[in-house]
Structures are given as C-alpha cells and as structure tokens.
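Task card 7
Instruction: Convert sequence to structure tokens.
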Amino acid sequence: MPKKERIDKWLWSVRIYKTRTQATKACKEGKVKLGDEKVKPSQLIEEGDVVEAKKAGIYYTLKVLKVISKRVGAPIAQECYDDLTPEDELNKFKDWYIGKGQIEKRAKGKGRPTKKERREIDAFKEDFFDFDEDL
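Output:
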C-alpha cells in the first residue's frame, strides 16, 4: 500500500512553507492545487502527484517523489520533490525587482517599529507583492 500524507504537512515538511500554519492557510485560501483542483489541507497525497502552490506571487509546480511527514533539512527535502516550475515563473520576481529595490530606511531617531507598525508594514508588503491571480 503506497504511503499517503496530508498535503499541508508535506508542503511544510519539504520546506515550501515556513510553518505548517502557513501551509494550511494557503490550502484554505485556494493557493494549493492537486492536479487542476483546489484542495483542503487534509487532502492526502502520494508519490507521483503534481502539486501547484502559490507563494509570494510565484506559482510553484512540484512532482511528489517521496512522501514524508517530518520536517527535514533542505538537502533531504529537495530529494522529495521534482521542481517542474517554469523558468519564467521563477524569474518573475527577479525581473520585477532588478533596478527597483531600495534599502528600507526609517527616519533617524524613530527607533524600531512598534508591533502595530510592523503589522501595518507587513500588510502593505503582502498587498503590494501578492498578485491577485487565482491559482
């Protein structure tokens, strides 16, 4: 019997998302597909499945080579999937960013941002960098 695992747990295990909560949230928001269908976080995957995941405006296409349930180091994680993401998709952010990026600066004497300010900054960046296209 082939081994199966929850898709949110697998995406976290192979380091596509930093936390399992982020992987679950992406599934609930419809940013993860198995084949051509949006999936719930509890969807089971097995070897040979093709998973599409949207992260930071980039659509990653991954073929499951090995099903794991525990988070592993990056070199081992890369052996668990085959990255089928088109080259132009991987270069999307790089092409947009070249020549436009500036170092973020804060007015002298303002100190570190408060928790509220940090949340506002993160919300602004998320809206600015996330392309509103459905997966």
